[in-house]
Write a structure and sequence with these properties.
Its cofactor is FMNH2. By secondary structure, the protein is of the alpha+beta class. The chain has a single domain, classed as 4-Layer Sandwich (Chorismate synthase, AroC fold). 31% of the residues lie in helices and 20% in strands. The structure holds flavin mononucleotide and the ligand C=C(O[C@@H]1CC(C(=O)O)=C[C@@H](OP(=O)(O)O)[C@H]1O)C(=O)O. The ligand C=C(O[C@@H]1CC(C(=O)O)=C[C@@H](OP(=O)(O)O)[C@H]1O)C(=O)O binds next to helix 5.
Length: 391
């Protein structure tokens, strides 16, 4: 299963096409819209989120609520397009008073993108490098999420830090299931710890006051995974690579850690690797700990997948940094677009979708891809074999 997207931040809308979708998968437009709304929320989001109310329009590949085995095409419209029709028109002449973007923002794609594509207007770059493009990605991920949900796999995320306000957890890798979705989603920063949530909001308030911006960290958890999904033999099939690459494809992601992550590099092996146990009542192998975060040798262990990612601070600053004017080549202040101050809670929702895609694709490689009934039959046979092995 894979997806493609097209669309600019202030164009008519954004399109996603999902390929390799098994037939017979139930799809709920409402559920996709719930995820689109979750992606728009979060303390610290900017004025654009008051304009947009993202909803998905499914254009192909679904009939009476179920996939039919063809690519699924989806559209998320830009409400803001109404304010940009002159400046973003696909055809015709640009307006005479068209303001070009010539003061590239440090930290955004503006300068390097303009150099690369030979333009003197950074708008051509920022329109597509904008994280607005994560809206169709979340819509597309809805297909992967429905696929996994149908197989008993659950994905959620929560924010673990914003700026210097960090949530303390005693053992996040062994027992990441103690937080309920309600606790997470009712927090304005999507953090289940009430005290940490308040500290994070204070941090964002301070950044707004200082005309600054913030990044942070979040964790994605996947439960209900079967062991042995992914691969050790072919580099591209290692889930560490596909999930890591998918997370790094999200704008502003600068770090990814599985389980104990970088901390593992500072500890001896005896304190890192997870002892193997046999649970005789369930006839399955299990682990005494989950420092690996659910992956060994590029494959799922059957323990929860625990992956943490770091997002850098938002590049657009209301007190802009120094840049160079591309027209005059003189010192200038970077452009000051309307902007989010912090988008870590939204980014975590985007990350859930990316992780869902990587895992859905690996499930289909292992269990088939044509239709849900065959996939479920293959999973049942696999579970029976594992059960026999451990008995
Ligand atoms: C959900 C989300 C919202 C974002 N909102 C903004 C924003 O409002 N303003 C901004 O300058 N950057 C924003 N960014 C970050 C930029 O898109 C990102 O830093 C930029 O594309 C450069 O890519 P890089 O950080 O990977 O180098 C956002 C990122 C995400 C994931
Ligand atoms: C539109 C979204 O995010 C945008 C990401 C973004 C950027 O530069 O990445 C800049 C802002 O857009 P605008 O310039 O229109 O205010 C954000 O609002 C969205 O997430 O839906």
């Amino acid at each position: 299963m894979r997806y493609y997207t097209a669309g600019e931040s202030h164009g008519q809308g954004l399109v996603a096409i999902v390929e390799d979708v098994p037939a017979g998968l139930k799809i709920s437009e409402e559920q996709i819209n719930v995820d689109l709304a979750r992606r728009q929320a979060g303390y610290g989001r900017g004025g654009r989120m008051k304009i947009e109310h993202d909803t998905v329009q499914v254009i192909s590949g679904v009939r009476f609520g179920r996939t039919i085995g063809s690519p699924v095409a989806m559209l998320v419209a830009n409400r803001d397009w109404a304010n940009w029709t002159d400046r973003m028109a696909p055809f015709g002449e640009p307006p005479l008073d068209l303001a070009r973007e010539v003061t590239p923002r440090p930290g955004h794609a503006d300068l390097v993108g303009a150099l690369k594509t030979n333009t003197d207007d950074c708008r051509n770059i920022l329109e597509r490098s904008s994280a607005r493009t994560t809206a169709p990605r979340v819509a597309a991920a809805g297909i992967a999420r429905e696929f996994l949900a149908d197989l008993g796999v659950e994905i959620f995320s929560y924010v673990t830090g914003i700026g210097s306000a960090v949530m303390r957890e005693d053992d996040p890798f062994m027992n990441p299931s103690r937080y309920t979705p309600l606790e997470i989603e009712t927090s304005e920063v999507r953090c289940p710890d009430a005290e940490a949530s308040e500290a994070m909001k204070r941090e964002i308030d301070r950044a707004i006051k200082d005309k600054d911006s913030l990044g942070g960290t979040f964790r994605v958890i996947v439960r209900g995974l079967l062991p042995g999904v992914g691969g050790y033999a072919v580099p591209a099939e290692r889930l560490t690579s596909t999930i890591g690459g998918a997370l790094f494809s999200i704008p502003a992601i600068k770090g990814v850690e599985f389980g104990m992550g970088f901390e593992a590099a500072r500890k001896p092996g005896s304190q890192v690797h997870d002892p193997i146990l046999l649970d005789r009542t369930k006839a399955e192998f299990t682990r005494a700990s989950n420092n690996a975060g659910g992956l060994e040798g590029g494959m799922t262990t059957g323990m929860p997948l625990v992956v943490t990612a770091a997002m850098k601070p938002i590049p657009t600053l209301m007190q802009p940094l120094q840049t160079v004017d591309l027209d005059t080549l003189e010192v200038a202040q970077a452009s000051k677009e309307r902007s989010d101050v912090c988008a870590v809670p939204a980014c975590a929702v985007v990350a859930e979708g990316e992780v869902a895609f990587a895992i859905a694709d690996a499930y289909m490689r292992k269990f088939g891809s044509d239709n849900m009934a065959d996939i479920k039959a293959a999973i049942k046979a696999y579970k029976q074999r594992l059960n026999t092995v451990s008995r």
